[in-house]
Amino acid sequence: MSPLPFQRGKHIKYIQDLDSKATKQTYEYWLLEHLRLNGLYWGIMALDTMNALDALPQDEVLQFVVDCYDKEKGGFAPFPGHDAHMLTTLSGLQILFIYRRLDLIEGEKRDKIIDFVMQQRCADGSFKGDAFGEIDTRFVFAAVYILKMLGRLTHEVAEGATEFIMRCQNFDGGFGLLPGSESHAAQVYTSLGTLAICKNLDRIDSKTPSWLSERQVLPSGGFNGRPEKLPDACYSWWVLLSLEMLQKSHWINFELLEKFILECQDLDDGGFGDRPDNQTDVYHTCFAICGLSLMYSDKYGLKPVDPVYCMPTEITKLLPDN
């Protein structure tokens, strides 16, 4: 049976409507203030992958990002007036990079962002998310990504991050958020992404792609994040791109995964949910579309996406070689 059609126009409108006046009147909109800059990146990334970056007003987007800059701490906050965090700092910079406007943080802002990142570095090579001290492989990935983007990733930082990441690997080939934590597909991505940016991906053996390929759930064809869990559209990205980094994406069934992703669409209003017939959100919309791009960019008129940096490859070619 042929997969459902890709509802490009409805997905674009869905993302546009996320910031409409009607949406801003809802209780849920304000409950998610702490994710606003991340959400903007997910929407921008989905639109750019669909060749529709102009669907949102560029000046307003860039002004919001600049307003999220934390003048005191140096990074980007999720919303103006909030505290800076490693993850939102990465999202803010990714948006600026996609629009090719890193010039908006030149000079003192750029230096303070680098200082903010380095202040979170720990003696074991890991990074905290912010001053509250939580450590996670996501923050390590975000830190080396930010430093790479700004041309300040040193050998010392790269080697320290690599050693910490390798301590997070488990006997099954997966990675946890900390040494000894349960293997999880999203943590595998952040771990492999860190190793790729630090040019140490050769530290990975065959157990990791084997664990990743076992995440495809039959008969649905979708991926789960851990053994014995339901499939979820966002893992179409986390698992597939990890296999792509390891040049083992041919180990899974593309046709079944494509069918699962397209069944997660809202055919009436656009957007993607985690599973068929579930509520849509911008997070799953972004990573479902990026997953389709990794498999069939030409078929769906999507831009090729870089599996390490989760930005269009036409943009990541401009990253500094450090």
Automatic annotation (TrEMBL):
Matching InterPro entries: PGGT1B-like, Prenyltrans, Ptb1, Terpenoid_cyclase/PrenylTrfase
Cofactor, how bound (note): Binds 1 zinc ion per subunit.
UniProt KW keywords: Metal-binding, Prenyltransferase, Repeat, Transferase, Zinc
Entry keyword annotation includes Zinc: yes
Domain Prenyltransferase alpha-alpha toroid as annotated: residue spans: 6-311
Enzyme class: transferase
Pfam families reported in the protein's UniProt record: Prenyltrans
Catalytic activity field: geranylgeranyl diphosphate + L-cysteinyl-[protein] = S-geranylgeranyl-L-cysteinyl-[protein] + diphosphate
GO biological process, one term: protein localization to membrane
Source taxon at top rank: Eukaryota
EC number: 2.5.1.60
Cofactor needs: Zn(2+)
Stored PANTHER family: GERANYLGERANYL TRANSFERASE TYPE BETA SUBUNIT, GERANYLGERANYL TRANSFERASE TYPE-2 SUBUNIT BETA
Protein family according to the UniProt entry: Belongs to the protein prenyltransferase subunit beta family.
Role played: Catalyzes the transfer of a geranylgeranyl moiety from geranylgeranyl diphosphate to both cysteines of proteins with the C-terminal sequence -XXCC, -XCXC and -CCXX.
Subunit structure: Heterodimer of an alpha and a beta subunit.
Name used for this protein in its record: Geranylgeranyl transferase type-2 subunit beta
Native source species: Candidozyma auris (Yeast)
